[in-house]
Amino acid sequence: MSIQLRQICLVAGQLDSTLDDLTQIFGIKTCYVDPGVGVFGLENTLLPIGRNFLEVVVPTRKGTAGGRYLDRRNGDGGYMVICQIDTKEEQQAIRQRALDNDVRIAYERDGETFHLCQIHPGDMIASFFEVDWDTVSDFNGYWHPVGGTGWEDKVKQDVTDNYLGVELQSDDPVILAERWGLVAGLPIERNGEMLSMRLNNVKIRFVEATDGRGPGLGGIDLAVKDRQHILGAAKDRGCYVSDDQVDVCGVRFYLHDV
């Protein structure tokens, strides 16, 4: 089984200003707008992070799940961990493990060439866990949520190169790790106090929530090639925390040189 992080979704109160911060600080470009999210009362834009993606969604009406999330976590933040899996059989096995352990399926869509399965964020404690499969099965190219292809010329990696990890937080990181490992069908690794789960291209870390915002997708590890550009732009925009961290859209971005 191969599960690859293909997309991280953030939820924000304002789209344009958030995209401006992300593009200017991380030196990335926008690549796609999905009109299909309108059915959920959202608008969105996606940006490539290497051959993977960062999505920002913003509620357009009251009473949406995204809006409730903003209220619950007192502002912008991480929202979804969206992965690609190599076979439909493995995707359905994840789905079944969720159901067998009283974890709800929040939403799913089954097409002839694409199957989307979103696992409920309340039951996964920190965020949505979405696992998608398509017949192309190209982990570095075709990706249905950005229209398949046509985004490749928007990839820009001279400042920010790629994802390295995701940080999920809760009051009890042991329970959080066990839940994700159980549903994903992957082992949990322990290195001292640190708990993690290894995907094809990143590690998901499970940590204690200490920022007063409760459970959530609190951090992202980035491989970067121009740290000084990121730090300078972050200082200009009030997003600088330290030479190793900037905070954008309510998320801690940890910088790792490559």
- Counting structural domains, the number is 2
Number of strands: 15
The CATH topology assignment of the largest domain is 2,3-Dihydroxybiphenyl 1,2-Dioxygenase, domain 1
For the record, the CATH architecture of the largest domain stands as Roll
Question: CATH superfamily of the largest domain, called what?
Answer: 2,3-Dihydroxybiphenyl 1,2-Dioxygenase, domain 1
The termini sit apart by 28 Å
Beta-strand portion reads 35-45%
**Alpha-beta content class:** alpha+beta
* Rg result: 17 Å
Shape: globular
Q: How do the helices and strands follow one another from N- to C-terminus?
A: EHEEHEHEEHEEHEEEEHEEE
Strand order of the largest sheet: 9-10-11-8-12-15-14-13
Q: Number of helical segments?
A: 6
Instruction: Show unreliable segments.
Output: none
* Major β-sheet annotation: 8 strands, mixed
What is the share of helical residues? 10-25%
Q: Can you give the mean pLDDT? A: 96
Which CATH class of the largest domain?
Answer: Alpha Beta
In short, what is this structure?
With 258 residues, the protein is α+β, with helices and mostly antiparallel strands. Helices cover 23% and strands 40% of the residues.
Structure commentary:
With about 260 residues, the chain is an alpha+beta fold. The protein is built from 6 helices and 15 strands. It has helices at about 15-25, 65-70, 90-100, 120-125, 175-185, 225-235; strands at about 5-10, 40-50, 50-60, 75-85, 105-110, 115-120, 130-135, 160-170, 190, 195-200, 205-210, 215-225, 240, 245-250, 250-255. It has an 8-stranded mixed beta sheet, with helices on one face. The mean pLDDT is about 95.
